[in-house]
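Hey L., structure's done. Input below.
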Amino acid sequence: MAGPEVYRQAVARMTEVSQEALRAAGWQIGEVDRLIAHQANSRILDTVSDRLGLAKERQLSNIALVGNTGAASIPLLLDQAVTNGTLRAGHKVVLTAFGGGLTWGATTLIWPRVTSRSAA
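Output:
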């Protein structure tokens, strides 16, 4: 793979699709409480956040703890954020990813109130 080109494409596509998702939701970037992105590379995460104009403290990351966990990165980060309290009911969230096969996507959601957690 051509690393620099993949980096450029990941940043461009994740930024664009996140902006599209924000427009579809009728949200401004200042309304977003959390950006949760595929955890492939911290430079990608920082650049996407910068290009969106999102404050760094609203971007969640666990890549330093768990590395690139592929398709599991967003679900793992969601669980970690709920567990440690950085993601709470009512937060406006943007999820965005760029991955295998050079595919990308994003969505918005308002995090629901979780009433119970079952042990696995």
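The chain has one domain: 3-110. The chain has a mean pLDDT of 91.

-- N.
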